[in-house]
Amino acid sequence: MLVTATKMLQDAKAGHYAVGQFNINNLEWTKAALTAAQECNSPIILGVTAGASKYMGGYNTAVGMIKGLIKDLNITVPVAIHLDHGSFDDCLKCIEAGFTSVMFDGSHYEIDENIAKTTEIVKLAHEAGLSVEAEVGAIGGEEDGVVGTGECADPVECKKIADLGVDFLAAGIGNIHGKYPENWAGLSFETLDAIQQLTGDLPLVLHGGTGIPEDMIKKAINLGVAKINVNTECQLAFAAATREYIEAGKDLQGKGFDPRKLLAPGAAAIKETVKTKMELFGSVNKA
Ligand SMILES: [Zn+2]
Predict the structure, then answer these.
(1) pLDDT of res. 65
(2) Ligand 1 mean position, distance from CA 90 (Å)
(3) Which parts of the chain are beta strand (E)?
C-alpha cells in the first residue's frame, strides 16, 4: 500500500519506535526490501537518491517498478517512495514522477536560503500530497557525490525549519554516511535532546544508520528519532554474499551463471539485513 511517510512517522514517534528507510538500487534491492517489510508486518520507506534513480533509468522507472512490485507481490504494509538528499530541482521532478515523499537537502545553504527554498518545496509538495523531510546541519561522509562535513545542527535553526511545516526533520548530531572511522566521537545526545525539546512532536531522522552501535540507536529512538536511514549496510551484505558465491565457484557449476541464481544470495542477504534492522528499530508488527 503506497502512502506518504507522514502518518507512519507520527505513529512511530508516538509509539517510541523508528521506521527504516532502506535505499534501493535495482529490482533485487526493491523486491528484497518489500518482501522483508511484508514478512515483518512493518511499514517501510524506500529511499531513492538522484544517483540511484539515474542508474535505474530515471524517477519514473523507480516509481513504476515499486508500484508494480507492490501490486504483483501483494504488499499490504505501508510503503513510502522517498527522494533521499534531493536538490530543489530533484524534488520538483519527483513530485511530477509520483513519489510520495521528498527530502530537500538544503543543509549546504546558509540558513536563510535553506528556509526560503524549504518553504517553497513544502508548499509544492503538500499541494501535490507528498510528505517533506528537511535537513539542518550537514551530515558527514559522502553519499552519491553529496559530501557533508559531519557537524551538529543548531537546535534554534532546527526549530526555524520545523516551523515551516516540514513533516520530519533530519539534523546532524555527529552521524555520518558510510562506514564510521575508528576515532568516531559517537552521536551527540545533548544536541538531539535540545532539538527534540524545541521541535516537540515532530519526528526526527537519523541518517547514516550503518555501524552506529545498537545502544546508541535505541537511545536515539528514545530521544525522538522516528526514521533511520540504512544504505551502506545493505550494500556490504549484498557484496559479501555475491563474493562468497563467486569465490566458491558456484557460477561455474551447471547454470550457476544465470543472473537469477547469481544474484539470489545477495538479494537474500539484503532481505536479512532489512529484517534485522526492523527488529532493532522496533517497527515489526507496526504496519
Ligand atoms: Zn543521508
Answers:
(1) 98
(2) 15
(3) 19-23, 44-49, 79-86, 101-104, 131-136, 141-143, 146-148, 168-171, 204-206, 225-230
Q: What is the DSSP letter of 287?
A: -
The grid coordinates listed for 246 are: 563467486
Compute, in angstroms, the gap from residue 248 CA to the centroid of ligand 1.
35
Three-state DSSP state, 150: coil
How many residues are given for the chain? 287
User: How far apart are alpha carbons 206 and 225 in whole angstroms?
Assistant: 6
**Domains in the chain: how many in total?**
1
**Per-residue pLDDT reduced to its tens digit, 165-188:** 999 999 999 898 888 888 888 899
> Which CATH number is 237's domain given?
3.20.20.70
Active site residue 167: no
* Domain that includes residue 141, residue range: 6-281
- What's the CA-to-centroid distance between 253 and ligand 1, angstroms? 40
Q: Which of 11, 72, 84, 201 is catalytic?
A: 84
Question: Residue 84 falls within a domain, yes or no?
Answer: yes
Place of cell 534513480: 53
- Are 140 and 175 a contacting pair, CB within 8 Å? yes
Tell me how far the alpha carbon of residue 259 lies from the centroid of ligand 1, in angstroms.
30
By the 10 Å C-beta count (0-12 exposed, 13-18 middle, 19+ buried), 194 is classed as: buried
Q: How far is the centre of ligand 1, averaged over its atoms, from the C-alpha of 52 (Å)?
A: 13
Does residue 276 fall inside a structural domain?
yes
**% of the chain with per-residue pLDDT over 90:** 86
Distance CA 69, CA 67 (A): 6
Between the CA of residue 108 and those of 115, 164, 233, what are the distances in Å? 12, 18, 25
